[in-house]
Amino acid sequence: MPLFAILTLFPEALEPYLSTSIVGIAREKQATEVILVDFRDFARNRHRTVDARPYGGGPGMLLRPEPVVECIEWLEERHGVFKKLLLTPTGRRFKQSHAQDLVEEERILLLCGRYEGFDERISQVLDFEPVSVGDFVLSGGELPALMIVEAVARLLPGVLGDERSALEDSFQESGELDHPHYTRPRVFRGLEVPEVLLSGDHKRIAGWRQEQAQARTLRDRPDLLDNRGQQAGD
Ligand SMILES: C[S@@+](CC[C@H](N)C(=O)[O-])C[C@H]1O[C@@H](n2cnc3c(N)ncnc32)[C@H](O)[C@@H]1O
């Protein structure tokens, strides 16, 4: 059961989401636990400030190293060493294969930045893996942290109603995108469900789905086909 610790200045923004949806179910089933820690509680000064102006000038504020590092040291004394992820647009792009690797971890810490980001010495003092959720910039690491917790939680045994759903998802075993899906009604605005899906012939259906998945991947994400060997070894 991985224990997640999310270090954030906005714990109240995260709790509602973490109590609902699949993460809420995973917590209820005790497949995982998530603790929210406000590192402002480790600020030493009277005004509880955790940020300061950057040396060398420039816009915005940076997160100071002392409250963050002391907060993590306190957590590790209580719970043991965490696998530590630093959320930053400059990090390695988060992928399904990382979510699968994280399932094996006992303790995972997610450090959410704000403002212009962190003082560099935080990642010089502690051993972090810098992780980005995509080539765009958000105002904080809270949404990336939720994305990562959910990506891992849905892979934990017993969390999804049918464990095959996770195995058949995009990027999973085949490294390709998922195939198209259809449900009722059989005809919607003149568009019919492909005949093969109504045939009851499971072999034909599996073949059709595989072809569709390959065609979709080639059309929308050809990079996945190019990187397939590399992804498997990620
Ligand atoms: C405004 S951003 C800082 C951007 C930073 N100055 C840069 O250009 O790389 C504030 C915080 O949001 C989080 N963040 C923003 N975009 C992110 C992304 N794509 N992936 C992960 N975290 C992100 C990080 O924790 C970051 O410290």
Describe the structure.
The protein is an alpha/beta fold. A five-stranded parallel sheet has the order 2-1-6-5-7, sandwiched between helices. Strands 3-4 form a two-stranded antiparallel sheet. A two-stranded antiparallel sheet has the order 8-9. The chain is elongated. A hairpin with a 2-residue loop joins β8 and β9. The protein is built from ten helices and nine strands. The mean pLDDT is 95. The chain folds into two domains: 151 residues, Alpha/beta knot; 63 residues, Trp Operon Repressor, Chain A (Orthogonal Bundle). The chain starts with a strand and ends with a helix. 24% of the residues are buried. It binds S-adenosylmethionine. The site of S-adenosylmethionine has 19 residues, from β5.
